[in-house]
Amino acid sequence: MNIEFFEVCNFRKLKSIRIDVSKKTTLLVGANNSGKTSAMVALGHFLVNPNRITTNDFTLSNWTTIDGIGTAWENLGSAENAQKPTLEAWDAVLPSLDIWLNVRKDEIHYARELLPTLDWNGGLLGVRLRLEPKAIDELYKDYLTAINSAKEIKKTGTKDNPDTAEFTLTLWPHNMRDFLNRKLASTFTIRAYLLDPVKCMPPVNGIARPQPLPGGSQPLDSNPLVGLIRVDEVAAQRGLGDSGSNRGDPDSHNARIQRGSRKLSEQLRSYYSRHLDPSDYPDPADLVALEAIEQAHKLFDERLEIGFSPAFKELSGLNYPGITDPRLKIATRLRPTDGLDHSAALQYEVLPGSVTLGRESVTLPEEYNGLGYQNLISIVFNLMSFRDAWMRVGKAGRVDQQTSAKTYFRQPIHLVLVEEPEAYLHVQVQQVFVRKAYAVLRNHPDLQDKLTLQTQLIVSTHSSHVAHESSFSCLRYFRRLPGTHDDPVPTVAVINLSEVFGTSNETERFVTRYLRAFHCDLFFADAAILVEGSGERLLVPNFISQHFRELNCCFVTLLEIGGSHAHRFRRLIEHLGLTTLIITDLDSAEESGHHRAVAPKRGCNQVSGNTTLKDWHPMKHKLDELLDIPSQDKIKTYTEMPFFSVRVAYQIPRNVVCTENGTPEEVLATTFEDSLVVENLSLFRNPERYGLEGNAMVRSLKDAIGNDSGPVALGAAIFEIVKGGDKAAFALDLLSLEESSELNVPQYIREGLLWLEEQLKSKLEALLVPNAIPVPEGEK
Fold first, then answer.
1. ω into residue 770 within 30 of 0, thus cis?
2. Quick check: 278 pLDDT over 80?
3. Which stretches of 111-172 are assigned E, i.e. beta strand?
4. What does the H/E/C string look like for 609-645?
5. CA dist., res. 392 & res. 258, Å (int)
6. Residue 328 and residue 321: Cα distance in Å, rounded?
7. What is the pTM of this model?
8. Whole-angstrom Cα distance, residue 623 to residue 322?
9. Which band of pLDDT confidence, cut at 50, 70 and 90, is reported for residue 103?
10. What one-character-per-residue DSSP string does 67-105 give?
11. Predicted confidence (pLDDT) per residue in 417-476, tens digit
C-alpha cells in the first residue's frame, strides 16, 4: 500500500493541484513564491493538526464568493418565506485535501473503511478531507445575529445624535470574512468523504480536476486515515545557532520558535525519554543502571542532609519546628533525563584526549558548532526519531503493549515531510542528505526492502543541488500562473516531470546527465537563456549587467548547450512553461553533399546546420528564408499556457561601414564571434587602443579589416579567421576590456534580451497586479 497522489483545492494559491507521490522520495521544486511551502503546509494542516487552519489559508480569489454568500444570507434573513441556507453554496470554495491510496486486494483489512462499494477489487481508494461548517443552520443564525447587531448599533448611534452624520467606523463583522476571522475555529471543522475511483480524472496542464461530491453526500463518522497513515514533519530549520532564543519567559515572542527547530540536546532528551529511559517498564538489562541511580540518590540525600543541618538548627532557634510541627527533611528525586536537562548537555569534541600525552579532551557546547552541521545532525536525528517512534523501538513498544493493543498497531504508511533541508548546508552535504535521507527512514530490520510497511518522503527545496540528485521521475515542478479575467489572483499548476520524456530514452539520459554535470537553476528560475558556446556564456551575462538593468534584477539561468543540443531540452522547457530565449547560430552550410560549413551568402542555396532552427522553431532550414524572417515570427507562443513563449535569436543582416570612408553595406555573420566583429569594426580596426593587440585572432582580424574589402569578402575573411581561432581566449580578452560597455552588443542578441526583459516585466505585473491579462474585446 502506498499514497498515489494528493489533490489540494482552495488552499492559499493552490486553487486545484495534484501532487503525484513517488514510492520513495518526492521533491517539490519551483521558483520562489510558487506554492511549494503552501503544499507542505496544506499536508501538515489537514493530516497533522487541522487547528492550524485560519482564514488566511483560504484562496484569496474565493473571498468574493464567500462574502457574496454572506450578503445572500442577509437578504434571505429579511425576506418572507426565506429558504434555508445550504452547504452546496460553499462547495466550490472550501479548502480540501484528497488522498488517493494504491491498495492491493490482500491489504483490504487496512482500508476497509475506504471501500466505495463491495465490488472493489484492488487499486485506487480515495478520501476527501474538507474544511466545512459544522452546522450550516447555526452558522447562518450566528452570522445574521452578529451582522444585524452591528448594523443596529450604528443606526442607534445615529439616532442618538441627530445632528451628526451616520458613523463611518467599521464594526465587527462587516462581511463574512470578517466574521470568520474570529469564528472559524468554533464554526468550521474537518470532515471526511469517500471518493469514487471510477470518477478519478487526470489533471490537464498541471491543473487537477477533483471529482465533485454527489448531492446529499454524508461525511464519515470519523477520520478513516487514523491508524492508516503516520505523518511526521521537519519544518525549515531556523534558530539553531541562537542558544538564548528559548530562555526567559516561556510565553515571550522569542520562545515561540516555529515547529521542528528545537535544539539538538532537547531532541536527544525527548528521544531518551521515549525509547531509552530505564525507569519506564524496566527489563533485566536496566537493573544495573537503576541500582547505580538509587545508590547515587541515597548518597546525595545524605550529603544534603549534612549540608543543610546548620540551617535547620538555626531555624529551630525561631521555635520552629515546635513539638507538634512536622520536621523538615531533604528528599531529592533523580531521573536519568535530569543529566540531559541543561544547555550544555550535548558537547562537541574539538580535540580528543590522550592518555599518552596526559591530555584531557577539549569540548564545546552544541551552539559553538557550525550551523550547517547542527542543521544536518538535527534533521537526520529527527528522521531517526520518527522511524523509531513508528516502529516502537525500545521502551515505546513496551509502553504501547502494556497500555492498549490499538495504539501498538503500526500504521502501514509512514509519510515524512521535510521542508527546505538545504538551510546552512554546503553543496556536498545537501547532496549527501538527499541521497541518504530515505535510507535512514528505512534503517530497521522490519523495514529495509520489505513492502508490508511503506515509507514515503516528500521534500520541498530551493536548491538545485538537491534537485539534481534525484531523477526526473521524483520531481514535481510548481509553475506560477498569472491571474485571469475571471480569476485575477495568481495560482499554481504542478507538473509531474516523470511524464516529460515518457519511457527512458537517449534524450532523457542526455538532459539528466547534463543537468547533473553542470550547475543549473532551471527548476527555480524566472526564465532561461540557452546559448551556443563558451563565448556567449562568458559575454551574455556581461551584456545583461551593462545594458539591461531590469533584466539583471530577475532570476534568469543561462545554459551553454550548443546548437546541436538545444532541441533536446524542448520537452522539458515546454512542460515547465519556462519563458526561454535561445541564442544560437545560423551555421551556414552548403546544401549538397556533407553540408560543409561556409561563409554565409545570399542566393547560393545555402542552408542552416542548426538543429534548433530546423526542428524546434521557426522550423526552417533555407538560409535565405531565415535571414528574412520578421522578428515577431521568431517567437513561438503556447496558447494553452499564458505568459509562456520561446524566442530564437540568431545572426541577422547588418548594414555597416566596411571601409574607412565607405557607406553602409550589408554584411552577413554566421556565428557569435563573427557578429561581435561585425558590430565592433572600429574596435578591431584599432585594437591597441583597447589593449587587445596581444591576441593572435585579433591581430588577424585587424589585418582583414584594414584591407578595405567589400562586404562579401570581409564576411568571408572574418568567417575563416574565427573558424580557426581560439574562441574562448577571444571572449576572455573582450571580457577584460577596461570599459566593457564599449563593446557593442550584437543586434540579434540585443533584440532577444529586450524581448525577454519585456516578457518578465509583463509576467511580474500579471503575478502581482489583478486583471493584468487583457480582457478580450467581446467581453469588455
1. no
2. no
3. 123-133
4. CCHHHHHCCCCCCEHHHHHCCCHHHHEEECCCCCCCE
5. 26
6. 8
7. 0.83
8. 114
9. very high
10. HHHHHHHHHHHHSTTPPPP-GGGGTTTS-EEEEEEEE-G
11. 999 998 778 787 888 888 899 999 999 999 988 888 999 999 999 988 888 888 888 999
Cβ atoms 421, 433 nearer than 8 A = yes
Cα 260 to chain centroid distance, Å, stands at: 18
595/598 Cα distance (integer angstroms): 9
d(CA 95, CA 14): 9
User: Is residue 763 within 8 Å of residue 643, measured between CB atoms?
Assistant: yes
Task: With H, G, I as helix, E, B as strand and everything else as coil, classify residue 440.
Answer: helix
Per the structure block, which three cell numbers stand in for 772? 493584468
- The closest of 166, 153, 184, 151 to 55, measured between CA atoms, is 184
8 A C-beta contact, residue 464 and residue 525: no
277 touches 337 (CB < 8 A): yes
Contact 302, 330 (CB under 8 A): no
The answer to whether 617 touches 574, Cβ cutoff 8 Å, is no
Q: How far apart, in whole angstroms, are the C-alpha atoms of residue 623 and residue 346?
A: 71
**Other beta carbons within 10 Å of 95:** 24
Bridge partners, residue 654, by sequence: 667
The number of beta carbons lying within 10 Å of the beta carbon of residue 572 is 23
Query: Other C-beta atoms within 10 Å of 384: how many?
Result: 17
Burial of 210 (0-12, 13-18, 19+ CB in 10 A): buried
What value, to the nearest 5°, has the Cα angle with vertex 636 and ends 600 and 572? 100
β-pair partners for 207: 204
Task: Summarize pLDDT for 117-170 with one digit per residue, the tens.
Answer: 878 888 999 999 999 999 999 999 999 999 999 888 877 765 556 555 555 677
Sign, Cα dihedral of 504, 507, 511, 517: positive
